[in-house]
Amino acid sequence: MNEALEETRRRKYAKLLLEVGVNLQQGQNLVVTAEPYHWKFLNLLAEEAYKMGAAYVLVEANDPGLLKARVEYGSEENLDKLVSWSDKKNETYINEGWARISLFGPTEPDLMGSFDSHRLGIIQKVQSISGKPVSDACGTGKITWCVAALPTPKWAAKVYNLEPSIEVERKLWLGMVKILNLDADDPSEHWREKGQILQDRCEKLSELNLAEVRFRGPGTDLKVKCIAGARWIGGGIPTDKNSDNSFMPNLPTEECFSTPDSRGTEGRVQVVRPVTVLDRTVEGAWFEFEDGKVISYGAKANKDVLDDYFAMCPNACYLGELALVDGSSTIFQNGHVFHCILYDENASCHVALGSGYPMPVPGATGMTNDEKTAAGINVSIVHTDFMIGGPEVDVTGYDGLGKEIPLIQNGDFVI
Fold first, then answer.
1. What band does 243 get if pLDDT is binned at 50, 70 and 90?
2. Alpha-carbon span 302 to 311, nearest angstrom
3. CA atoms within 13 A on the CB side of 251
4. Structural domains in the chain plus CATH codes
5. Across the chain, which distance is largest between two alpha carbons, in Å?
6. In whole angstroms, what is the distance from residue 349 CA to residue 388 CA?
C-alpha cells in the first residue's frame, strides 16, 4: 500500500466533509460521531477542521460493546433513562449553531441483531425522543450536518460476502474512493459541480408543480400525493441564516427529494434492497397504503422489526420523504448492496416512513407540529428510508390537471 497516497486520499476526504459536507465556518464548533476504530481519521479530521478555523472539535466515539452491556445487564427500570446533561448538550448544539458530522462505519454490523429487541427498543425510543430537537434543527438548516462513511473489515465483509480482513476493508475503501472521486485534484470542486447538477434537476421538478408521483414495477404500484407548492431539493441545502451558504448533508449524494402529503399515499410498494431498521436488517419488505397509512406489510426476513418500528410512534406508518435517484448514480453503477442507508438510498428511488422534512414546503420551517400536520407534513420521532426504485420501476408525475409526465423510464431520468 502506498502510504503517501492513502494519506492524501484521507486528507482530501476530510476536507471534502468539512468544506462541502458541513461547510465549516470560521469560529464554528464541530461535533463528530463515530466508533473508536476510526480514531486515526478522526484525529486527521480534527487537524483539518482547526486549520479551517474551527473553534472547537468534539468527538463522540462510543464502542458498540457499551450498548451491548447495557442491553444485556442494565436494570429494565433504568433503560429509558438518559444522563441529566443530554438535553442540555442538545440545546447547546442548536443554540450555538454547531456543525455535525456522523460517520457510519460499524466494527460489528450485525451486533444489534443479537440483542433483546424489547430492551433495545426502550433505549432507542428514549434516544429518538431526546434527539428530536437536534434532528429538527438539522431538518431546518439551523445545524449544518453531514453523514458519511468509513470502512471496517466486518462491514466490508458483509458488502462483498467475504471473510473479514484488512484486504477486504481496503477493497471497500477503494470502491468508496471511486464513488467519492477522491483521486481528483479537488474532490470538493467535483462535488460542488455535482451539487449544481442535482439542484438544476430539482428546479425542473419543482417547476412541474406535481400533484402526484406514481411508481410502477414488479410488486409495485404506488401513488404518492404531493403537497401543493412543495419544492424538490438536492445537492446543497441552504442554512437557516444564509440561503447562499449551503451544505451537503449526504456524501455521496445522488437524490432529489421532497416532502409528500402524508395523507395521500395509496397502493403497494416492494422494497428492493435490504434496510437497517432499529439496527437490524429487514429483507424483502413490502407495504400497502390506504389514505396515507400502512395498512398491511410483510418481509422475507425480520418482519418483527417492522412491528417494533411501527409501535414506536403512531405516525411511523405514514410517509415523510419522497426521493428520486436514477441509473446515473455511481453507487447504483457500483452494483453492490452496501448495507448502509447512506449509500443504498443514493442508489435507488426511495421513500421514508416517519418524520417529514419541513424545508421543501414554503413557510414550514417556522410551523408548529400541529401546523405541519395540517399541511400534510408527517411529524414523528422516527425516519427510515426504504429503497423502491430500479431499472424495472418507472416513475411518472401528474400535474393538477392529471397530465402524465414521465420522470424516470428504464432506470434513467427523462425530464
1. low
2. 15
3. 34
4. 3-150 (3.40.1830.10), 199-234+252-413 (no CATH)
5. 60
6. 6
